[in-house]
From TrEMBL:
InterPro entries on file: Ala_racemase, Ala_racemase/Decarboxylase_C, Ala_racemase_C, Ala_racemase_N, Ala_racemase_pyridoxalP-BS, PLP-binding_barrel
Cofactor: pyridoxal 5'-phosphate
Residues at which substrate binds: R144, M315
EC number(s) per entry: 5.1.1.1
Catalyzed reaction equations: L-alanine = D-alanine
Record-linked CDD domains: PLPDE_III_AR_proteobact (cd06827)
Active site: K46 (proton acceptor), Y267 (proton acceptor)
GO annotation terms (biological process): D-alanine biosynthetic process
Domain Alanine racemase C-terminal: 246-370
Cellular component aspect of the GO annotation: cytosol
Species annotation: Methyloversatilis universalis (strain ATCC BAA-1314 / DSM 25237 / JCM 13912 / CCUG 52030 / FAM5)
List of residues that carry N6-(pyridoxal phosphate)lysine: K46
PANTHER family registered for this protein in UniProt: ALANINE RACEMASE (PTHR30511), ALANINE RACEMASE, CATABOLIC-RELATED (PTHR30511:SF0)
Name the record gives this protein: Alanine racemase
Amino acid sequence: MSRPSFTDSFPLFRPIHARIDFDALRHNYLRTRELAGGARMWAVIKANAYGHGIMRIARGLSTLADGFALLDLEDAVRLREAGISQPILLLEGFFSARDLPEIAARKLSTVVHTAEQLDWLESAQLPAGARIPLFLKVNTGMNRLGISPAQVPAALARLRAWPHAGPIGLMTHFADADGERGVDAQLARFAPLAAQFDGPVSMANSAALLRFPQTHADWVRPGILLYGASPATAYMTAADIGLKPVMRFEARVIAVQQLQPGDRVGYGGLFAAERSMRIGTVACGYADGYPRHAPSGTPVAVDGVRSRLVGRVSMDMIAVDLTDIPQAGLGSVVELWGEHVSLDEVAQRAGTVNYELVCALALRVPAVEVGVADLSVTEPQPAVALAR
Ligand SMILES: *Cc1c(COP(=O)(O)O)cnc(C)c1O
């Protein structure tokens, strides 16, 4: 496959970027759709599309996605203004009755998860003929959002009687689809409600979609799978699932140091050289979104060769071991995660999850797009596209 060379240039003065691969994104969407059987898919693009850039990811999926799910009304409006015409679901619903006219005008779908939201719906002043598609969310054990199963019949009756109700769906969210407890207990509470319900039903996040086909129902809600990372690293790697990483986080070596045995590296001198070493200082630190808790030994790839982080992560820099990579030096490209180093490995070393790493990508890191986006979405792109 011919791709533009990504090592030729970094878009800003400081040599760091997040390379976003549209081909990988579309591959992951199609792979996820295969796993989802016949269910329709809300592509979850909350949190700036998990750090990948919400407008960018919407552009990448604009002809594929059955719908988009996110949190912010402002983002939903931007999607509509860019020409995205499929359903858009507000996953936390609305935060006051004042939000409803915009939601109706933009033809957005919204979750209703609490009794107060029912009151706000009933008190809203909307144009005659306005219809809002609704998903009633049931708390089946996550205890975050949702009304209790016992309240569902009364809530559905109120929604059905609301003159501005569009199609009404029923949904829930799993707390441990990626873990040992799985979905059984929550499914036992939800299934009787779903069985009596005649509208669309939605349950599965990425982990449930992958591990529990009995949760697929009408709409699935994959997030992390689309970005090419595993939702359940204890059970499967991204490669096992057949996903491709969408983000490649890279920066250049901007200085090289020679170390004698016993020389220390970085703040606190946490790392001491066991032998003569050559290390590279890389233009990436925790202010770029690299995890400060990543310890010495965390994998990196230097010009495509795997090596390791040494010493403490600084705000703007890290050090990497070049000793066994004699061809590497000033200007070498260091992959922090992406192709040769998986996001999941770095997350595990840093004591966090893949989700947190990509979401924390800093505003100051520019994005570089590769592969084919969909041109039917016409939002003008700035010359240098920042990740957010
Ligand atoms: C974030 C979110 C998802 C997507 O979760 P993934 O684990 O990334 O697939 C699905 N549903 C809801 C309600 C969410 O908040």
